[in-house]
């Protein structure tokens, strides 16, 4: 009887003394070492909706109710103005915190990146890292690289590399605790591309900030990636740039040639080793292809010059003394990422470099916003590549990461990467995993897993199956100790057919069982890497 009464009393106490949710409009922040808060606003937002905008929200999201905390901070003496946005669900908080990352030359996407986490019950944060120059500049222009006097803005460089991850997360967790009366039980990072790269930097630089990190298609080895992305346009500035109908023909021929090699003619190349696709661009020379984007009705003839260009793009960048510093465009990946072109006035074909590359070359490399990227030749490419490696490998390089502190802190890192990623080849993620695995005594799998998706392009682009709920898989790994063995992926093809796959954990490869529907995950198994 006494036990019951005592229990009742404790429950009663717990009820009245439970941490109270603070009103949104009276939330404050304590002093946070290293930053000065310049301004802070907070108000409740009701019935907030966003339209689908991959990869931040894959479907329309409606009727969110949250406490919107918006603040700017500066690092004393560094003259930066960093915006941080924290959204706290007014009801049904799931007890977790989620920080979100950016893309290209942006550290984060305030507003857009926060809707999905809030719709799933997460308290969440995003930051611009100061790169919008107090809301006056698009970070993808790279204008933030230079101070008004033309020198490199080292404060913003550090924010972009990793510091803004820390600031946003400390502030986000603190506000979460103050608002709900208890700290988040688990904290997560989610991001793709640059957001994926930031996830790896979070693990390496701040090993106990997150329990789980979801890092899609990470922009690892950022300095070398710059060289990789500049290589195709650099060749096209020098020779004639083909219209995309030409590249699309090469892509189709590559898929036709290499898709069946994995045993299934399913339109997807499932072998992650680019060397295993023996495609020879010369075989297409002389072929005539219809080209609706050109004004003239006549088809375009594929030339030897086109074939050479495609060979260079598939091989990847080289410097005279460093052949093959990077792999080339993966087999099955669209040329519209790094080798995009546009047709002007029906007949003039111009290269369209991946936009952030232009800002990088002008501002980070030549420190001259008026520099004409479209006039560059291969000697200039050499300069861009070397200068980028020399000046930025120290801050953006990831070759020496072991992630062992993150492992010791109990963190889990889950990465997925499209094998047809048109911007960042998955083979670099594989090489990174191999190295970390070696440095961790061959059992990196205990805390770090990579899943490769055939036919998937950058983040959620491409034509192959897309991971369905990778964050859910990470949460089960972190909170239930149940590591993902395979990762469910699905897509609906243009012809309406649903294609599913259970993605394999690298270094295993998806192989067809030899019978059964090639669109169905059940017809495929994972084959371990051959010794
Ligand atoms: C939000 O929408 C619901 C129904 O869609 C409505 O009943 C409610 O009044 C709205 N709340 C506010 C604050 O606008
Ligand atoms: C959150 O607050 C900031 C600052 O007042 C404002 O600019 C922003 O639009 C708000 N976001 C939403 C979704 O209301
Ligand atoms: C500080 O930043 C502002 C806005 O970005 C700029 O106008 C000003 O010149 C900077 N001051 C110094 C000392 O760099
Ligand atoms: C940032 O912009 C706001 C207006 O949007 C302005 O009030 C504020 O003074 C600016 N802050 C700095 C540090 O320039
Ligand atoms: C396209 O045509 C317009 C109108 O004739 C002309 O002004 C423009 O310069 C042309 N563009 C190029 C790149 O030639």
Automatic annotation (TrEMBL):
Q: What is its EC number?
A: 3.1.1.-
Keyword Signal among UniProt keywords: yes
Amino-acid biosynthesis: is it a keyword of this entry? no
InterPro entries tied to this protein: AB_hydrolase_fold, Tannase/feruloyl_esterase
Q: What class of enzyme is it?
A: hydrolase
Q: Where does the UniProt annotation place the signal sequence?
A: 1-16
**Which Pfam families would you find in this protein's record?**
Tannase
Q: Name one GO molecular function term.
A: feruloyl esterase activity
Per UniProt, which keywords does this protein have? Answer: Calcium, Disulfide bond, Hydrolase, Metal-binding, Serine esterase, Signal
Q: Which family does it belong to?
A: Belongs to the tannase family.
- Identification of the protein by name: Carboxylic ester hydrolase
Originating organism: Aspergillus kawachii (White koji mold)
């Amino acid at each position: 009887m006494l036990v019951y009464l005592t229990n009742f009393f404790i429950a009663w106490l717990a009820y009245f003394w439970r941490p109270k949710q603070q009103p949104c409009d009276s939330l404050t922040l304590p002093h946070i070492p290293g930053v000065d808060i310049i301004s802070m606003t907070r108000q409740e937002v009701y019935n907030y909706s966003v339209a689908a905008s991959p990869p931040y929200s894959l479907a329309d999201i409606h009727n969110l109710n949250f406490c919107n905390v918006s603040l700017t901070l500066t690092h004393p003496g560094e003259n930066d103005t960093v915006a941080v946005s924290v959204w706290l669900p007014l009801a049904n908080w799931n007890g977790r915190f989620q920080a979100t990352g950016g893309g290209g030359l942006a550290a984060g996407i305030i507003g857009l990146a926060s809707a999905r986490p809030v719709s799933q019950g997460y308290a969440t944060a995003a930051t611009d890292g100061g790169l919008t120059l107090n809301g006056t500049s698009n970070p993808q222009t790279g204008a933030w690289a230079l101070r008004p006097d033309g020198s490199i803005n080292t404060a913003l460089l550090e924010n972009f590399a990793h510091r803004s991850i820390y600031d946003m997360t400390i502030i986000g967790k603190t506000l979460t605790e103050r608002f709900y009366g208890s700290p988040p039980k688990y904290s997560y990072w989610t991001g793709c591309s640059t957001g994926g790269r930031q996830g790896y930097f979070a693990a390496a630089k701040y090993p106990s900030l997150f329990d789980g990190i979801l890092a899609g298609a990470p922009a690892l080895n950022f300095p070398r990636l710059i060289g990789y992305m500049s290589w195709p346009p650099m060749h096209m500035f020098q020779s004639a740039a083909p219209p995309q109908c030409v590249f699309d023909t090469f892509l189709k021929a590559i898929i036709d040639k290499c898709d069946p090699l994995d045993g299934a003619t399913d339109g997807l190349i499932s072998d992650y080793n680019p060397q295993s696709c023996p495609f020879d661009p010369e075989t297409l020379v002389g072929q005539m292809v219809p080209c609706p984007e050109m004004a003239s009705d006549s088809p375009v003839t594929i030339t030897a010059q086109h074939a050479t260009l495609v060979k260079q793009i598939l091989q990847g960048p080289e410097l005279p003394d460093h052949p093959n510093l990077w792999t080339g465009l993966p087999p099955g990946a669209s040329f519209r990422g790094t080798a995009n072109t546009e047709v002007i006035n029906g007949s003039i074909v111009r290269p369209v470099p991946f936009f952030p590359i232009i800002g990088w070359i002008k501002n980070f490399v030549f420190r001259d916003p008026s520099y004409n990227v479209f006039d560059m030749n291969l000697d200039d490419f050499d300069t861009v590549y070397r200068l980028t490696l020399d000046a930025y490998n120290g801050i953006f390089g990831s070759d020496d990461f072991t992630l062992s502190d993150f492992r010791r802190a109990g963190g889990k890192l889950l990465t997925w990467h499209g094998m047809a990623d048109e911007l960042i080849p998955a083979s670099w993620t594989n090489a990174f995993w191999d190295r970390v695995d070696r440095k961790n005594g061959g059992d990196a799998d205990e805390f770090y897993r990579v899943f490769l998706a055939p036919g998937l392009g950058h983040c959620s682009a491409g034509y192959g199956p897309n991971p369905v709920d990778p964050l859910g898989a990470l949460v089960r790994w972190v909170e239930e100790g149940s590591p993902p063995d395979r990762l469910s992926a699905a897509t609906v093809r243009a012809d309406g057919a649903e294609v599913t796959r259970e993605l394999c954990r690298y270094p295993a490869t998806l192989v067809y069982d030899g019978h059964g529907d090639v669109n169905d995950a059940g017809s495929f198994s994972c084959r371990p890497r051959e010794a």
